[in-house]
Amino acid sequence: xxxxxxxxxxxxxxxxxxxxxxxxxxxxxxxxxxxxxxxxxxxxxxxxxxxxxxxxxxxxxxxxxxxxxxxxxxxxxxxxxxxxxxxxxxxxxxxxxxxxxxxxxxxxxxxxxxxxxxxxxxxxxxxxxxxxxxxxxxxxxxxxxxxxxxxxxxxxxxxxxxxxxxxxxxxxxxxxxxxxxxxxxxxxxxxxxxxxxxxxxxxxxxxxxxxxxxxxxxxxxxxxxxxxxxxxxxxxxxxxxxxxxxxxxxxxxxxxxxxxxxxxxxxxxxxxxxxxxxxxxxxxxxxxxxxxxxxxxxxxxxxxxxxxxxxxxxxxxxxxxxxxxxxxxxxxxxxxxxxxxxxxxxxxxxxxxxxxxxxxxxxxxxxxxxxxxxxxxxxxxxxxxxxxxxxxxxxxxxxxxxxx
Length: 404
Known about the structure:
Blueprint: H1 2-32, H2 37-65, H3 67-87, H4 91-103, H5 107-118, H6 121-155, H7 162-182, H8 198-202, H9 204-212, H10 214-243, H11 249-268, H12 270-297, H13 304-332, H14 338-367, H15 370-395, H16 397-403
Helix pairs in contact: 1-5, 1-6, 1-7, 1-11, 2-3, 2-4, 2-14, 3-4, 3-5, 3-7, 5-6, 5-14, 6-7, 6-11, 6-13, 9-10, 9-14, 10-13, 10-14, 10-15, 11-13, 12-13, 12-15, 12-16
């Protein structure tokens, strides 16, 4: 899988680099066009709502038509969404850009299915960590680039979103070229070779299977709660950084980049050691504990230095939780339904992320007390840790490790 792995890594990394460029700038663009915290949350949530609706469709389609065509289609949609962001001149256009990107947000889940197709269980977590590293590096480099481009655009009397959006669209075009010329198909064609119908693309069977199997319910629920909490951090960190510490778009981008750097570092080092000794479930529990610790520091933050410490702890947790739980879900899922199951999981995560940003924005508008929001987020992550613990009691952390 070495050649395919490099092509997949580059495709996902470049695509997510565009994502990292755009998201931190979104709050500053929304404010310029008159949006409050609640509206910003709804803009961010619209992406997740579309992802919730379309992720299972993409997952099922990838099971029938192959992973490569779905990844290509996702990249085309991202080009359109980023172009809309670059040209946005009002809140409605910002909504439209995030909706387009949400509909097309299939690259990560399909890349996970690609990894699952191409690896055995012993190397599955390592393969998923490759996707996590691509995500982390995209978040490391994207926000500082986006902040710099936004500042440069302001100096040229351009809207803050124009240059970042254009750069993100260009990167997605590059990712399309890499996928088209170097990424082979990972999934063998079905025996009958028939095209899927609309009903099979909706894939009710994968939804039923997801909620019928206890391991999938608990692992998927844990991951969804984690995503809900993490999604609320984006608007709050932007608003707190801007209002409490007077951070610029570039400064906030660097803060997000630092978190991404920590996430990427986990994929290169500690996640492999932790998964080998603790198993996927035990590593998830450890990651959730790190996330909770970082979150609990936020209400007591009075300096940028302490904020950096909290962000690093949250990055450690995020880097450990997401790949291990995704790997566990892919191991439990039947091979013939793996893409559909990962699509359902991605859809559940997206649904959870629909609620995080609007609630965080509403709480910020109402209370101007981010400490309360982060405390509630910490409670939600405690629920994640509890769910993972219940999963560990059912299967046994060592039993999971033995199956890898």
